[in-house]
Amino acid sequence: MRHDDGRKLDHKTLEALRIRAVQRVMDGESPEVVIKALGMSRARIYEWLAAYREGGFDALKAKQISGRPKKLTGDQIRELYTWITSFTPDQLKFEFTLWTRARVRELIRREFNVRLSDVSVGRLLRNLGLTPQKPLHRAYQQNPKAVEQWKKETYPEIQKEAKKAGATIFFGDEATIRSDYHSGTTWAPAGEAPLIRGTGSRFSLNLISAISPRGELRFKTLQGTMNAEVFIGFLKALVRDADKPVFLILDNHPVHHARKVREYVDNLDGRLRLFFLPPYSPELNPDESVWGYIKYHHVGKKVINNKEQLRAIVYRQLRRLQKLPKLLKSFFGHPELAYISA
């Protein structure tokens, strides 16, 4: 597809185009996506964003208003956007891994010899459609090649084998839910940290569950810690409740590889097969969202007085989840899990 810079358009059309494009970026769309949809050269969007930053929407009109010289050019803003969206600060020889306003300000000074305030940097980042977000954590031990192989080769092969065997694919995971977990925010006077009062005691509950792309959920609350016998008990229930063979995908917890577990699976004549995710890759497992949902939306918003109350809350919400297949299917909607439906 050939791109142009809009010179063949009349002034009014180009003016409306500039304003609409910048507004789309401010509404959260990627500059790259916006300009590609318009069929224009990549540099244009960053020139328009630079103009908007200095003079607002008036600067995008056919006859631009005069004003002070731009501190950052369109090319510089394009480079800045690429750095922030493609690299972490440590990859660009900073000591930290998060893009804060101060870090971006330092990057601009270092690379372009331009000094901006934190407020100006924040405004610039918002104009680029960027917002502060809680980062996803990845273990540094994770092997990106193994993850890519899992998405493009290993899992598609599991899908083919499951289809051939008429099996249902489940993703399994264990979790520990603590009574002192709190989620969300609470209003309080400025400068006064809000206090959450509890019993002073802590309770925890160990669980295991498995979720399928069809919106099925199986779970079990555990007495004590996970071991081979406890895990086999969960597997027995999983197979007993299934009318088809089960392909269960798990992380690499040592219990999952235990000799007793392997012997149990081998004796089932194909009714159950275990597969393992790449090491240090929890983002590839949709079952993680089950525990995140229970902790954030339920346990984290209540005062837990004893372990039986904690168990009752968790059990009730997991039972409720079993009756909400659409919600369970939505746990597969994260971009990291797109490989499952591919």
Radius of gyration: 26 Å
Q: Gap between N and C termini, in Å?
A: 26 Å
For the record, the CATH class of the largest domain is: Alpha Beta
Q: By helix and strand content, what is the structural category?
A: alpha/beta
Strand order of the largest sheet: 3-2-1-4-5
Helix content: 40-55%
Number of domain modules: 2
- N-to-C SSE series? HHHHHHHEEEHEHEHHHH
Residue share in β-strands? 5-15%
From the 3D coordinates, which CATH architecture of the largest domain would you assign?
2-Layer Sandwich
Average pLDDT: 80
Assembly state: single chain
How would you characterize the largest beta sheet?
5 strands, mixed
Q: Which overall shape is indicated by the principal axes computed on the Cα atoms?
A: elongated
CATH topology of the largest domain: Nucleotidyltransferase, domain 5
The low-confidence parts are: 1-6, 181-200
* Count, helices: 13
- CATH H-level homologous superfamily name of the largest domain: Ribonuclease H-like superfamily/Ribonuclease H
Number of strands: 5
Could you characterize what this model shows?
The protein is α/β, with parallel strands linked by helices. The protein has 2 domains: 117 residues, no CATH class; 181 residues, 2-Layer Sandwich (Nucleotidyltransferase, domain 5), CATH 3.30.420.10. Helices cover 44% and strands 10% of the residues. The chain contains 13 helices and 5 strands. The chain has a 5-stranded mixed β-sheet with strand order 3-2-1-4-5, with helices on both faces. Helix 1 packs across helix 3 and helix 5 crosses helix 6. The chain starts with 10 loop residues before the first helix and ends with a helix. The relative contact order is 0.09.
